[in-house]
Each structure stands twice: as structure tokens, then as C-alpha cells.
Specification:
Layout: E1 11-16, E2 22-32, E3 42-49, E4 55-66, E5 71-80, E6 85-93, E7 100-102, E8 108-114, E9 121-122, E10 124-126, E11 136-138, E12 146-147, H1 148-152, E13 158-160, E14 162-168, H2 176-183
Antiparallel strand pairs: 1-8, 1-11, 2-6, 2-7, 2-9, 2-14, 3-4, 3-8, 5-6, 10-13, 11-12
Length: about 180
């Protein structure tokens, strides 16, 4: 699958693994809108992992655009840094039929990008090694990726705040076909 072109060049991605096969139908993330009010569509992309780490541009597992009507923005009551910008929990409901069906014990990378110029900064925290690999950053629209230290300087190592929501996915396996045929 080739990637949907984004009109904006800056994006972040962070990795995750699942303990069971899973269908992702919603993503929650936390961030700020330093220059605009919360609104607009979001591009969501899931990558496989590149051999040297980070998102693999040649292995886009799935992607979708979540329309503004399927986005919720909840002011958490907290503010962030010197901008004193409100921190929002952003809920993205993946359009029906475009859910991400992912397998257990596989390293994936999720990228979420607001589709309005300078509109959303995804919040991150200092990296915790229990969270796999630190986030990666792209200033080239996802054509190339850098780890945090390469992108932001020595000692700058972060994990993005996000939560994946969905259902366990029980994929039909070859052994299931006999049972399915027997019930018809």
C-alpha cells in the first residue's frame, strides 16, 4: 500500500506491540493546539518496523483520514509549558471498513497528523524503556524518519501519549474453513 500524500511535512510516529490480534477502531492521543482551535481532519497511518528501527515507508499496513465529524476534542483542564496552551484529549474514530487489523507480537508504528497547518502538537514524555523504542520524527512528510536524538539533539528521547481502542480480532485460519463449511 502506498502512503496517502500529506500536504504537511512534519509528523511523529511511535511504536507499539499487541498481546493479542486486535482490530483498532479508535485512537486517543493527547496534545495541544498552540496556534489554532481544535478542528479538522486527521491522517492516521500504521507502519511495520524498518530493519534498522523506526517506521518502514515501504510497509504501510493501513491508513485512513478521520473526518472532523469523527473527532472529539476534550479539554483536560491542564495546560502545557510556556505557551499555556490547554491540553486536549483527542479521540479519533476510524471510519467503518477502514479499521486496522493487526497481529500479536509484531512491532508497529502509528502516525497521526492533523490536516491543518500548525494545528496540533502531539504531547510526549521522557522515554521509558518499557515503552519499546522512542518516537521517531519526520520533517519530510514521512519520506524519511529520524530518531528523537537525531531530530532534536542529544538526550532528547521521548514517547508519545496515545491509546489504541478496539476489539480482539480472531482471524479466520485455514483450520476454520472445515468448521465454516460444515455449518453451511
Amino acid at each position: 500500500m502506498s502512503a496517502i500524500a500529506s500536504p504537511f511535512s512534519f509528523m511523529a510516529a511511535d511504536d507499539f506491540e499487541l498481546s493479542t490480534n486486535f482490530e483498532i477502531n479508535e485512537i486517543e492521543l493527547w496534545g495541544i493546539f498552540p496556534f489554532n482551535s481544535p478542528s479538522g481532519d486527521y491522517l492516521v497511518r500504521v507502519y511495520g518496523e524498518a530493519s534498522g528501527g523506526g517506521p518502514d515507508n515501504g510497509n504501510v499496513i493501513g491508513q485512513t483520514t478521520v473526518p472532523a465529524a469523527s473527532v472529539t476534542n476534550t479539554d483536560t483542564g491542564y495546560t502545557f509549558g510556556g505557551w499555556s496552551s490547554p491540553v486536549y484529549k483527542v479521540g479519533l474514530v476510524i471510519p467503518t471498513g477502514e479499521e486496522f487489523i493487526l497481529e500479536v507480537d509484531t512491532r508497529y508504528w502509528v502516525m497521526v497528523q492533523a490536516q491543518a497547518q500548525n494545528s496540533f502538537n502531539w504531547l510526549a514524555q521522557d522515554h521509558d524503556s518499557s515503552h519499546f523504542t522512542p518516537m521517531y520524527y519526520s520533517s519530510t512528510g514521512g519520506n524519511s524518519w529520524d530518531d528523537c536524538e537525531t531530530a532534536f539533539g542529544a538526550g532528547e528521547i521521548f514517547d508519545c501519549f496515545f491509546r489504541l481502542i478496539g476489539n480482539e480480532s480472531s482471524a479466520i485460519e485455514e483450520t476454520s474453513w472445515g468448521m465454516i463449511k460444515a455449518t453451511l
